[in-house]
Sequence to fold (202 residues):
Amino acid sequence: MAGNREFFYRRLHSLLGVIPVGIFLMQHLVVNHYATGGAASFDKAANFMGNLPFRILLETVIIFLPLLFHAIYGLYIAFTANNNVGRYGYFRNWMFMLQRVSGVITLIFVAWHVWETRIAAAFGTEVNFQMMENILSSPFMFWFYVVGILSTVFHFANGLWSFLVSWGITITPRSQRITTYVTIILFVALSYVGISALVSFI
Fold:
């Protein structure tokens, strides 16, 4: 029974990391990328997202609750996993270890980002271009965000590879090799979208 529960929790953890959390990540990066068009462009996109009907309900059910489960169970996986890179050193073993490390870094980054933006907005602060410009005016915060974005995007892209394997979508070595290249391209593309937005804010 315990084994079945563990199997279910791991599958649910994997699924929620891709749908809806992963989809929200891509959407969030795209909205932030509007900063490359200037303050007015970003503020328009942010206002559109902020004024969606039933926004709080949608954020709670589709984003925060799935993210909370994924984060809590992810910490359990990270601190109970047997990393064997020192013994084997294979590429996928390194990816296994980096997935756990990036998960912890991502959790710290996301918690801080939510505190600086969503919690601040709940107390009346407007989420706009100037808010992000003020946050990123500190070199420390800028590089904190760079590391956070790279960690988050890596965790999603590599997690997508694991999701495809664990759900039986990519079974053969060839299909897994192809999805390795696809997820690397996805990591590079989303990293570019995220970092270019950061640079635009400063």
The helical segments are 2-18, 21-33, 39-50, 55-80, 91-122, 129-136, 139-166, 173-201. The CA atoms of residues 98 and 155 lie 8 Å apart. DSSP finds eight helices and no strands in the chain.
